Amino acid sequence: MQVIISLHTQGVFFVYKNLKSKNKTEKESWRKMESNQLRLAEVDALENLIDGIANLEEDFSTCGRLGVIAMKGCEEIGAKINAYLNSFRYYGAEGVLYDFMIKSSCPRFTTGEAKAVIEQSVRGCDIFILCDCYNYSVTYKMYDMNTYMSPDDHYRDLVRTIAALNGKASRINVIMPMLYSSRQDNRISRESLDCAISLKELADMGVSNILCFDVHEPRVQNAIPLSGFDTIPPSYQMIKALYANVEDIELTSDKALIISPDEGGMQRCLRYSSYLKLNIGMFYKRRDYSRVVKGTNPIMSHDFLGSEQDVKGKDVIIVDDILATGESLLEVARKLHEMGAKRIFTFITFGQFSNGADLFDKAYDEGIINKMFVTNANYKDEKIKNRPWFCEVDISKYLATLIDALNRNQSISGLLKPVGKIENVKTRVAELKKI
Do 283 and 361 belong together in one domain? Predict the structure, then answer.
């Protein structure tokens, strides 16, 4: 266990780490060395506090000592989750940090083959593995060449890590914000069902819970009916970010409208419509099923199922789960702009921007989009984050809350349906506007 205690005494900042690992002689030496700056009573209090935290941690959960593993590319969000977990569990001891992160790695041989290594004991731990299968910034050496990790590479490293944990951890949970192969969730002809196969593999390996955000087709959980599977909506985080970044937004039925860019996203939009009491508009994607281009049937047109009067003069919010190239979303935004929409915002769970950001820069300059709210559930280049139209929605606190609840064997139903929290935000905004 790694514990860091921070004290401010006479203007000096002290960090005393791993006190329990020191033997009696080392402790006495430390006391003498710092005696001119720290009162002996403070040193004793410091040691007692560490002992108390160690005992407290053992009593916190019924599922085992909490441990979090951040796979390659998840280090940043892992650090945020670690900090939030500390604020939840050690709020009474200011400046105390218990390191929930479990050290692990996936080193590779020169041929590109890999193995997973857990670098500390996880015996009896309740492990949560963070994995971003779509982080295209991570590289490894293969035949002395820098090779970018594909979603397949990330997924196989996840499988290796689970294999290294099995037989040691008391429970294994996987947090994969964007579900691996989530767009290959059904079969049109002679195709592989990659999403179902990967879910079944994880369940067969002993994974107890799989947590994802806005799964493209939630019914894929039918592949593992006896395992825990939750698709998490970032609705509250999106709405809070909109209020925080657009001061004059009015989310009333006569001033705003929710838009689904296709029929598949209606369920997602119905959720926002219920929370905000707004009407919904929908576009229908007309496809050419006689051709296949880049693995899919090309979209011929986007037809709005409604009238211009439904859109004219209103702020519209386009809600979608995955943004790949963004061409389809921008076409929808362009049509809404032509119909007289006042401003156009987007709620995107996974912004991949696989063809870069030039099209979005142009759309922003032309007034077609005003602000894009995108979660940090998957990797994005810093150049995209710095665009004036981009607003990152942080889900790390939400993830930490879910991890904390699951580790304590508490229900997460209230976290998945944040109606009360959204109502509180709306009330606070309304009160502020009256001032």
Answer: yes
SS3 content of the chain, % helix, strand, coil (to 5): 40, 25, 35
Q: Which helix (H) or strand (E) holds 155?
A: helix 151-165
Q: How many domains does the chain have?
A: 3
CA gap 323, 379 in Å, rounded: 13
Query: Contact 360/334 with Cβ under 8 angstroms?
Result: no
Amino acid identity, residue 146? N
Name the CA radius of gyration of the chain, rounded.
Answer: 25
Distance linking the first and last C-alpha atoms of the chain: 49
Domain span at residue 102 reads 65-232
User: pLDDT tens-digit profile of 258-296?
Assistant: 999 988 889 999 999 999 999 999 998 776 666 676 666
Question: What is the CATH classification number for the domain harbouring 319?
Answer: 3.40.50.2020
State the Cα–Cα distance between residues 36 and 54, nearest whole angstrom: 28
Tokens of 59: 């009593």
- Record the tokens describing residue 162, joined without a space: 């689970």
Largest CA-CA distance found in the chain, in angstroms, rounded = 82
Is the CA virtual torsion 355, 358, 361, 366 positive or negative?
negative
Tell me how far apart the alpha carbons of residues 306 and 285 are, in angstroms, rounded to a whole number: 14
Strands annotated E in 71-114: 96-98, 104-105
> Would you say residue 410 lies in a domain?
no
Distance, CA of 429 to CA of 262 (rounded, Å): 31
pLDDT of 187 strictly over 70: yes
CB atoms within 10 A of CB 392: 15
**Judgement on whether residues 187 and 266 belong to the same structural domain of the protein:** no
| Token digits of residue 299 | 């979209």
Whole-angstrom distance, CA of residue 390 vs CA of residue 373: 6
Is residue 313 located within the same domain as residue 387? yes
In a domain, 404, yes or no: no
CB 400, CB 374: distance < 8 Å: no
Contact between 131 and 158 (Cβ < 8 Å): yes
- The pLDDT tens digits of the residues spanning 340-361 come to 999 999 999 999 999 999 999 9
Q: What is the pLDDT of residues 90-139, one digit of tens each?
A: 764 454 478 899 999 999 999 999 999 999 999 999 999 999 999 999 99
Give tens-digit pLDDT for 386-400. Answer: 999 999 999 999 999
Burial of 143 (0-12, 13-18, 19+ CB in 10 A): exposed
Distance CA 132, CA 367 (A): 33
